[in-house]
Fold these 2 entries.
Entry 1:
Amino acid sequence: MAKIGIMSFAHMHAYSYAACLKELAGAELAAVWDDDARRGRAAAKQFGTRFLADMDRFLASGLDGVIVTSENVKHRAMVERAAAAGKWILCEKPLAPTVADAKAMLQACKKARVGLGTAFPCRYSQSLIDAREQIRSGAFGEILAASCTNHGQFPGGWFAKNELAGGGATMDHTVHVADVLRWILGREFVSVYCELGNQFHQGAIKTDDLGSLHLEMEGGIQVSHLASWSRAKSFPTWGDVTIEFIGTDGVLLVDAFNQKLNVYSDAAVKAEWAYWGSNPDLGLVADFVRAVDTRTEPAVTGMDGLRATEVTVAAYKSARLGKMIKI
Amino acid sequence: MNVALIGCSGIGRVHAEAVVKCGLNLAVVADKNQAAAQALAMDFGGEVMTDGLAACARADVDVVAICTPTPTHGLFVKAAAKAGKDIFCEKPFCRTVAECEEALAAVNKAKVKLFVGHVVRYFQEFEAMKAQIAAGKIGQPGFAKLYRGGIFPQGAELWFRDYEKSGGVTFDCMIHDLDWVRYVFGEPKRIFCQALMKAHAELPQDYSQVTMRMKNGVIATVIGTWAHPHGFRVKAEICGSGGMIQFDSHDAPLNVQKRQTGAGSGMIVPSSPVDKSPYQLEWEDFAGWLAGRNKPRVTPRDAIRAVQMAESALKSAETKRPVAL
């Protein structure tokens, strides 16, 4: 039984990972630590586990692995502490808001000889897995271009604070798709151009809520990506992950979460989409548990997290300088 | 009012129908491919000619409708203007801004009227979106994403495949959306573009991805595709501080699927069942202008600006740099 702890419930994904740990037969959510004791205590209570307010005590409590789901800028310090304590680590995306942080985290885990995974659950999305198989079978020829979106509703809180998130919607919503494209196409990104803006929340927040990225991958693959918090409060779901792949022998359009019921409830006033597809988070957490058990690297590595962070960081630089940036 | 229509395949057929439906007389149908002109005359009437320039010069013609491949637009606009005819020209106005300016100078000198068919300004769904925005339904608009395209078009003598002539999907098709974005959100500041422009003996592929920053701060991302194996789709999304609007042509009150034949399918540009087609509406607008009843929704300057935006997009695709507008 892999004993897993969760460090911080600042990121809402922590609640989903906790639920996955409860669901997996071979895993135990053994402890919660949070620098916000009230939040941590409430989460521990919700998931029927113990809360340890002291990080050292938490790390010395017999855990095999930890999931880090803090604010982006705190990832590095927590990962370094967990690595030093010999814990296997699954870190929420983006792995870090800066390349320097991400590299330091990889280094710390390498030195401590612990596994480091980046939480890219899209790799466990069945529609994306199927798309990858179709593309890799060669049935669509050579992929020449892709246009992508990762839109979301405005998450509020620390996500909109530069000092905690290291950026806005572009920081939040670029890495999933960047990772998926690397994984499906087996190519790296070479350059990016980005138009960045605070388009919807002027006055309310100081970070970007939209990034329109134009990227090139090895082999000249042309990619556009929209990262945003543009979905209205009245939108029927949280957002989307979509990719249109243009191949020499056909086109694939992935709308990864388009398995939904249209629900019209007078109690909710607005229309809602009830998702009924498989839960990608479960695959992600199951793989982490496997890695912990076998003392091997998680399938989605820290290096994958670093590569995605490099894309985001270059996008911000491009927007600042107004030109295409080499990655 | 006698109309001479030049260029009888593809979009020429659509305009012939609109001309007839808004009560104008289709007097001449001209195409260097006589069979194409004859086929059109069979359905909509008109005297068949093979010489477009001669059609422009005919004394009994009041209006010349130019539906030929883009590189010939300038030639026919100048000929029609010289003959004192009012002119309807299919978009894009010309292949370059320089040609546009030359053609417009001839129009102005002859004191005739020129209308360029940026028909998306007349599509009911696009007008409805514009009205929703104007009504404040989505608050302050901050972002637009437009998507348009499908299969690579055939065109007379497969002229679209010559990217020098057609400019590909960026110039020929996306120009609709570039114009509409400017129509709704005002002047653009800069444009960035990636374009495939792949040649292929059987079916070439073009796919264009553009982002524009408008002077008012709006970011507009536009995707144009001639890379799909079949079909045609239009999608639009406008997001603002207080909501968003989405449109998808796949949400339609009528869906038909015809059995595919061995010959394959050309591009069929869909339009929802409406009492008046957007093409008829633009012809009525043009005819109203000719009759002195109204100002047209599209001016020659609008059309030149659209060409400039599309030209700049192609320049950006080539240089991999944003191009200031």
Note: The interface with chain B takes residues 144-145, 147, 191, 193, 195, 197, 199-202, 209-210, 212, 214, 216, 222-224, 226, 228, 230-232, 234-235, 244, 246, 248, 250-251, 322-324 of chain A (CB under 8 Å).
Entry 2:
Amino acid sequence: MVHQGVTQPDARQRRDSRASERIIHLILLAATSISVLTTFSIVYSLFTETMAFFSAVPLTDFLFDTEWTPLFTNKRYGIWPLVTATFVTSLIAMLVAVPAGLLAALYLNEFAPERFRAFVKPALEILAGVPTVVYGYFALITVTPFLQQFIPGMQSLNMLSSGIVMGFMILPMVLSLSEDALSAVPQALREGGYALGATRFEVATRILLPAAASGVVAAIILALSRAIGETMIVAIAAGQNPLLTFDPRQSAATMTAYILQVSLGDTPYGSLGYYTLYTVGMTLFLLTLVMNLFSTWFIHRFREVYE
Amino acid sequence: MNIPDHSQTIEKQLPLATRSRPWGAYRYRRRLFNIVFHILGLISIGVGFAMLGILFVTIFNQGITRLNWEFLTSFDSRFPDRAGIKAALVGTFYTISLTIAIAFPLGVASAIYLEEYIRTNWFSRAIEVNISNLAAVPSIIYGLLGLQMFIRWMSLGRGILTGALTLALLVLPTIIIASREAIRAVPLSLREASYALGATRWQTTWHHVLPMALPGVLTGVILAVSRAIGETAALITIGALTFVMFLPHHVLDTFTVLPILIFNWTSRPQDEFRSAASAAIIVLLALVLTVNAIAIILRQRLRRRL
């Protein structure tokens, strides 16, 4: 990244040490520091408000109570209902996105002609470009009534249809990132497989997939963290009622839906309700942060490097 | 071409269990797997497109009758047949313009610094990890950050400026990552030629590297715009209004945007608001998809040139 030794170093240094060059250097540094400051501000604001919350509510209530009712008269502060709803909706989304995304990626990489791939990849990216509020509306108005015809006991707000629609939202992410990882596998490995008489299916599943495993796993983890942080789809189509249940036909508020619901209301600063925003936000932030760090680490640790 | 076929003779010498039929069945099964896999792959892609198609068709059918000039030019209303998207459309336009005015220079400047200036060491690696993590932070967390930073600490109120600053922080990582890739793709020989002629680092960057990298940078910025246009959760968290009957005249004026209006109409009880919401979604999708199409075309042309 630093192109030194291109001209004589001391001549370059003399040129670059002009006042204007130094000022520009400082301006660029300042711009870069904004993103570092953003991270610090996120951590700091989440941390201070979370501390304020825990000075009023014991950590044991937060971790072991099974009800979350901070906005009612009988206030309970157990995080689990929000966590289970987040878990159920994300799991459904992954059940849609991972098989479909992986199959499509393997198909595009190994079976499809190049022109087909060049068309399909950007075209499916449109799915990722659709604003999430549109998906929420679609899940509520179209998908739920459709599923209600087959599934008895399905509520008009439910985790199933929001999970399914969310799966289609993250499908292009799984597809695109795994396809990139598959493309990086050297041609020689494929040819070796075919020379031994393997079918395309065998090359795809026994050579390409293991060789690209680190990239594929990273893609899946990033998609999962996107699903966990997704707000509008679940807020519109899964409802805002915190309920500890694993039944996807039920309506239940996720962590993100809760934050949105409180933001829509009139919660004064300094109230316990306001602090819960940041406590739930902190939980969400830590969850996604751990997953993102894990995926970065996983890529570096398990990447097969090909010359 | 007279090659004697020995396969029959060889097969007769094999143990009974591996003779013709089991071997044929095995090969048949492998072929079958291959075909099934082929079909499953096609189905997966087909399902993705089908979903997209169903989404477009249902929303188009529900909303197209409601979409007319009056809808675009009237304010929101309690009566579904009188409600329009004027305030939201103008709000979206102002907010996004301001967001880009903030995020574009900041993002490109960071990218230049990270590609052309910084020395590779633990600090540069830390910044790299930091930016890729920021890109994956849920948007609603940015909303909480905006609420705390711009409303509580800086007392900027719940106006367009707060919204634009929050969105700018949200899209900044996207712009930085795309711009860095574009800058990295500029051939080293170009820089060397410039340095050899006695140019400084900034002259080289400004006159040679940036113009070459511009299409890639712009693609990243346009994708960031498309993300910002559809962003809802972060703006609701900082308290953008849901019912607005005026146009903003100042960056500190309160505002609403198209996705928030759609969210609001979705949650109103009268069924008639659904067709209004669908009509607003058509407008939103048209905006977002146009912006995306520009980015894709730009990327294709760029690929041809390199």
Note: The first helix of chain A runs from residue 9 to 16.
